[in-house]
Amino acid sequence: MKRSWIISLLATLLILGGGIAGVFYVIHAVEEDMQVSAVLAQPPADDEEAGEVPKGTQEIIFESQKLVVQIELEDGTVGSGFLYNDKGDIMTNAHVVANTESVNVKTSDGKKMPGDVIGLSRDVDVAVVRVPGMKGKAPLPVREEDTAELLDEVLALGSPLGLQNTVTRGEISGLDRTLDIEPFHYKNLYQISAPISPGNSGGPLLDRKTGEVIGINSAKMDEETIGFSIPVADVLPMVRRWSDSPMRSLPEFPELTDQVTSPVTGTDTEQASYMVQYFYDSINQGDFVTAYSLLSSSWQEDISFEKFRSGYNNTLSVQVDNLVADPKEDQVEVTAFLSAEETIDGEVQKKKYKVVYPVKKENQSVKIWNGTGEELSTNEEEEAKEEETED
């Protein structure tokens, strides 16, 4: 049954989950302080216009992405979450996992693991999922106190529209916001200018300078670059109680069961392109262990880690100029056009390559099956650019 909602004239807000919640329209959404700060989407700094990311921020993003997961429900809808302790516990939004006891999580390297909901609030939009396969992993650093201030730069991580491990940047543009989105009451929210979309629900909001988790991305203003995050310091005592003593029975949300839901998963081509991009991000960060883990077991049988690692001894950097994904019967063929800086005979040389990767699932995980590449001549580079323009 579809429920008719009265849309508030003051604002239309969306809970960001692709999970049970789908999309909620707010009836009593905005209280007296919903005067949006003038600090919304600021013009990018000169280095950002050039597409450059400060090294510190790049490292924070890369390391954090490994600990952010995509949460998948049986109906195909998705949300986000992040590892907050060494017990394998994932913090997320309650509306992402409402009315379910078990989920699957997908890590940044494409691995899928089962998880159980061990804590779920009826009033606060927070939940905890325990994933045994992530036990023992070092978690994301979490800020213990609410010390965020206006104009603090932030990073929002998650899986908007099912596109895993997407990162958006912005600023805190408002503090102490209050919302009511049935059945949850939100208070002391951060208002942020980082663009966020369905599927971001439960993903972490990071301090751009320190990499600490300061919030849980939870809602957005419809058709605006205005999002809202729950300060993580406000819910830490509750989630830690669940981790120490999991709930024996979970609260139910009958008011959510008749919501219109729709999966927001990324397409196979988008997921395949993501894996190839993540492979080269790992190479550029010097994380060859992660890059090697993205290869299929058959490819790993053909090339040892030591041989794989030594193949990049002379590579200084690799830039992905373009990715072209072509879906086949049982796989996606991703063609990567690359610009590389290499040391050859003591000199730094720039070269262009074209590499084709078949990408498909292996034991429920997306893997890069193998790769065939060629160095491009000047003429071939021009032809490749023409192909990219046509695509």
UniProtKB/TrEMBL annotation:
GO molecular function: serine-type endopeptidase activity
Gene3D superfamilies named among the record's database cross-references: 2.40.10.120
Keyword terms of this UniProt record: Hydrolase, Protease, Serine protease
Short name of one Pfam family: Trypsin_2
Region annotation Disordered: where it falls in the sequence: 368-391
Any one GO biological process: proteolysis
InterPro entries associated with the record: Chloro_Bact_Ser_Proteases (IPR051201), Peptidase_S1_PA (IPR009003), Peptidase_S1C (IPR001940)
Regions of compositional bias (Acidic residues) in chain numbering: 377-391
Signal peptide: none
Protein name as catalogued: Serine protease HhoB
Primary gene name: hhoB
